[in-house]
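Chapter review: from sequence to fold.
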Amino acid sequence: MRLIGALCVLIGLTVQANGQFRKYSNEFLNIGAGARSLGMGGANVASSSGANASYWNPALLSTVKDNPDVSLMHAEYFTGIGKYDYGSIAFPINNNKRTIGFSLMRFGIDDIPNTLYLVDADGSVNYNNLETFSSADYAFMLSMSQIVKTGDDYELSMGGNVKVIRRNIGSFAKAWGFGIDAAVHYKKKNWQLGAVLRDATSTFNTWSFTFTDREKEVLYLTNNDIPTQSTEMTAPRLWLGGGYTFKFNEKLSLLTELMLDLSFDGKRNTIIKSDFANVDPRAGAELNFNDALYVRAGIGNFQQGLKDGDTTNMKKVWIYQPSFGAGFRIKNVKIDYAFTNLSNQSSPLYTHVISLGFNIIKKEK
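The token string follows.
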């Protein structure tokens, strides 16, 4: 509780010190990592494991024991327009009491038409002048976890991330960013508690823009502003999670988790909202059979919206984002699948997510 209180004080000081934040900044960092977690509705702060813990709770990298763990994920959004890739690897060191991890993620939209030169000087449309460019966001994370205290039935670990961000919009705009995450995890018997302060000291992106004289002329003639160098700030975000595992017998168990996502960048459309903080709950469950077969479900992203798109009566109802998933493990290889709705339960914006995980087991002499 003292640690959580300290995290809240740090958030308050950061918000007061900076004052101005860009809402929904670096949102590609909030997509998630691993089909297991996405199948549980993103409720994985207290129960993540393996190399994917770098994203959800770096303190849980301590679950990687003896052998390095690798996780790879690919997802496509909006019928393949947007592509998201994530990869991470974790190495246990210091007799399994410390773990380091490396992660790389990319969200990109490729082959975007550049229409700046579509119209010739005489006013005619010339499709031969069409070119394409890509808009892509990258993030590299260096993670570390340390087991602080352990006993017969409990374990306390702490961890953190150092993030380097690179964002490109064709040859027009580029940005470099830097941020830090801090995390803690506590496990006792069947209970697990986790807390992650993302962008702890606020994450910044410094943008620079490059336009040719002709491009500037086109932007000016079409009444578009020519951007100048700027800095984009991302407010801290606090993730709190609690999980409990129901063990029915030696082979069958059910993991449940409730997570609270607290944002501090202005009022959002969440269950609890204010100018200072917003609270967005998530819940997930995973049925585990003999550590070989998994079935998952989750719910999150609660928002108020119009019932069935009814713009006549303007009746508002609570909508949410459901998700489902499954997975199986064969020896040291694990394949997970998630089926999630990107919008809400009434909008058919579904996507399929597949991820692969495996341990690098050294051959014994």
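Two observations follow directly from the output. The domain at 2-359 is CATH 2.40.160.40 (Porin). Residues 1-19 have pLDDT under 50 and may be disordered.
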